[in-house]
Request: fold
Amino acid sequence: MSVLYSALGQAFAEIKDLKHGLSILNWDQEVMMPPGGAEARAHALATLTGLAHARLTDPALRRLVARLGRGRQRLSPERRRAVQLVQEAVTKASALPGELAEAIALHESRALETWRAARKARDWKRFVPALQRMVDLKRRAAEATARGGPLYDALLDDFEPGATMADIDPLLDELKAVTQPLLRRVVASRRRIDLSPFVGRFDLDAQAAFARQVAVAMGIAPERSRMDLSTHPFCGGVGPDDVRMTARYDARDMRGGLFGVMHEAGHGLYEQGLDPRRLRSPLGGAASMAIHESQSRLWENNVGRSRPFWRHWLPRLKRAHPSLRRVGLEQVWRAANAMRPSMIRVEADELTYNLHIILRYELERDLIEGRLPVRRLRERWNEGMHDLLGVTPRHDAEGVLQDIHWAMGLFGYFPTYSLGNLYAAQFMQAARAALPRLDEQLARGEMGPLREWLRRHIHRHDQLYTAAQLCRRVTGRALGVDAFRAHISAKVDALYG
Amino acid sequence: MSVLYSALGQAFAEIKDLKHGLSILNWDQEVMMPPGGAEARAHALATLTGLAHARLTDPALRRLVARLGRGRQRLSPERRRAVQLVQEAVTKASALPGELAEAIALHESRALETWRAARKARDWKRFVPALQRMVDLKRRAAEATARGGPLYDALLDDFEPGATMADIDPLLDELKAVTQPLLRRVVASRRRIDLSPFVGRFDLDAQAAFARQVAVAMGIAPERSRMDLSTHPFCGGVGPDDVRMTARYDARDMRGGLFGVMHEAGHGLYEQGLDPRRLRSPLGGAASMAIHESQSRLWENNVGRSRPFWRHWLPRLKRAHPSLRRVGLEQVWRAANAMRPSMIRVEADELTYNLHIILRYELERDLIEGRLPVRRLRERWNEGMHDLLGVTPRHDAEGVLQDIHWAMGLFGYFPTYSLGNLYAAQFMQAARAALPRLDEQLARGEMGPLREWLRRHIHRHDQLYTAAQLCRRVTGRALGVDAFRAHISAKVDALYG
Reply:
């Protein structure tokens, strides 16, 4: 079995190397590539995607996995899990025709360029044909892999392995039910929060230097990461020793820059906390996108928007921006947590954010399930914004064209953001129980204890456990809405009375 | 035949896509990658190299090429040339075992890291085992592909297709014979050149902005290129629409930065002048490394170190660096052309540069031919520097460890630099004959006529002609030393009397 297992390791390592190539080519396209390079890059990404797919569906690999599967009782639990992960990947890839995988990869790059142009021109109609083709391709992919289940579940599984609509609908329904009355209180409240600690005129270099200081204090290792600028911040790269984060700073509003960096650094800490020995193995990588998002949101919201955090960092923020010298702790905390319905997901506060996600989830689910034609998407988007948030986009760049995901074919990704918020709150509750002096530590700028707790309980396990198993191990129960409800209700109480 | 030819095009396009991935991964490693990423990158590069090799040696491709080869009379000359290029690549790759190709790729990344550390520590001994392994691997590769000819010729062919030691030895011997008496005159001359137009204290940002302005005036299209910083400047990327140049600026000496940018922009113009429709075809790419180098050296030396160039650019340089306000045209021209034996190839003047190359050529030829053991290389280097240039390195970082090439396994590359100088002089002679008002144009800052002439006669042909064919087409004769002799003798006369 050991010989077979190491043959599996070797075969999978080469697939990981192709994914390494894809990851850097994607990062480069977003952050570095000159615009002229788009056409050639589309081909290169499609070919590498096709090769990874061909490797994963190689009959020799399938035979190897089958033999290891039959002898699984003689494998260690870790190896058994690795074989299971390869088996799932092989089964899924084998169901997807290679030409379709390449066609999707090729269309991704092109749809992305079309989306960019359409967003810039605020012209939804320009994006429709590219999105229509993407929906068609993804529906075909889902049909190929769904094994009789709902099409949307097949796509969701790419980001949240094992999760289904049947699992997440009740969670998101409950989350909506928690959020809506709180939002009504926020909107009805007469309290106005003073945003001047973050809104005004702030030097961009000083913002970047401060954000970098926070990221390093969180534990981001500079010799194993980069931080660049990009219009759509993200965290990419190739695992623990080469993490690529990006940021965007706005001279008029510091919140997006600072909390964006804490968000991406939360993703980055997860990546840097993975076991480097597993990088090229089937076990290497995050448990799921929702678990990944839980790490970013925990640092962004549960830490970065907390009073103890600001006790340490406010004096440092004042040194970076002397105009803030008279700002008080309560004032900066309130400004960091101000809530208000708005158009743009990535700028949304912690409360309304999930409504943005629920809208996208419902729309993409209906697109994939064939209940919503692409041409009606814009109308349904605007209706949804009105119903859920009480606002209407003035143009499509702040409406249906705002997100990159659908242009990249990422259907099934959005719900992982809200699941991530729920996991974050539940993990933070467990961390507080395990680290009774956490608030004192954060108030002294000591983020190490929390980081090491996350590393020990979450990061270093890679994909050894599913998201659901990990949640039970770390928090003692299945994912629910309670921890988030407690967290967000307390904030609304304090802020809007 | 047309169906067969398009099957060939498709197969080769995927090989080009893999090379696209390799090119960006290499650029990223030099310019962007955090140090921690080296180990994973080594694996990814090795796997992609192995995949490209596997594709090139795929029996289906070999059969396709054989069938097209048998019917070559029915192909257009362009397609016939494409088939010939694939045939050569397939034959060469098939002779090289896949494991050896991957082992070399894997060792390249590691030897590179070792070389960096050894150079930093000025510790030749630390590099010896890595270099020994590289020489062994490259000798094995040469043995596999040499088909009975000399081992070194097999490696030279990777960079200068079709060239052999028998071709280049007479050229380099003649070049040495031309250079040595000129160098003796330079060394014996009592004339001292005032370097103050370039040597002193110069703002780095102003240097970069000026160099960029020159590159754009040369015709570099910003939307199809990048210019970054790296310790070892180079030009990479993936063809006409995505050119990646790098630069290095020194506050104390502007020459390396400015002429380095003109050099890399010369490479960049060649890349941007290639036919974008051929990018993924067998014909796409430069005719040879010497032709590539001719383009960089022509802009760097024949244009950038000419009086007409400075007539236009000196006033602009003065605006960028007000301390130069009293510098005259003759003064800047002399400073740009000052000659002096020195340790570092990339900082060498136009005259002594070729002696640096001749030394490296003789050493690497002897390493590969088995006439020089790696452990004696340092000693032979220092002897050679003394014999050819009359100087002795004070430490190995300015001696045998200065260049990246051998660490990357690039044996057979160095001579293309001197061949490039010879081609540059001969092409410039032809350009002058075709553009009688060239000096007036350059003196007005008009670099377009020269660029378009190069584009029309050299760049846009990709690999349609061999380097030797191209040289005959463009200049009417085979490559020789005469044009370079005339060019360099005139400079030595003017500068050192």
Remarks:
- Chain B has two domains: 2-145, 166-496.
- The interface with chain A takes residues 13-14, 17-18, 20-21, 24-25, 28, 32-37, 39-41, 43-44, 46-48, 50-51, 221-226, 237-243, 279-280 of chain B (CB under 8 Å).
